[in-house]
Design a protein that fits this description.
Elements lengths: L2 E5 L3 E3 L4 E8 L8 E6 L6 E6 L6 E3 L7 E6 L4 E6 L8 E8 L14 E4 L3 E6 L1
Parallel strand pairs: 2-11
Antiparallel strand pairs: 1-3, 3-8, 4-5, 4-9, 5-6, 7-8, 9-10, 9-11
């Protein structure tokens, strides 16, 4: 069984930076791609960023490209999301997820490719 726990979310001002963490317990994450998704109030959950199992291949939503960076430390079983130049429209609950694609180096962007999810961490960006 895999448990994912996000942390680092808080209230910040527009233009600030924030780093989210996703810690895994149960089974190692190093064999699986990982991703970040977010859900704003009244909206569908959407893709934010993803990384292949080694961290070499990444993918980003257009809305966060060049502002957010996804990374992972497989030795620590942790994935990160560095968020810079935050905007009010980045306000959402952020979720990390583990892909079901064992040993894949591909960064998956569809929620349907993920089978384990964390509980989420709230990020609020004030204007």
């Amino acid at each position: 069984q895999v448990q994912l726990v996000e942390s680092g979310g808080r209230l910040v001002q527009a233009g600030d930076s924030l780093r989210l963490s996703c810690a895994a317990s149960g089974r190692t994450l190093s064999s699986y791609p990982m991703g970040w998704f977010r859900q704003a109030p009244g909206k569908e959950r959407e893709f934010v960023a993803a990384t292949g199992r080694n961290g070499d291949n990444t993918a980003y939503a257009d809305s966060v490209e060049a502002r957010f960076t996804v990374s992972r430390d497989n030795a620590k079983n942790v994935m990160y999301l560095q968020m810079n130049s935050l905007k009010p429209e980045d306000t959402a609950v952020y979720y990390c997820a583990r892909s079901r694609a064992w040993l894949s180096d591909r960064p998956y962007t569809s929620q349907h490719d993920y089978d384990y999810w964390g509980q989420g961490t709230q990020v609020t960006v004030s204007s």
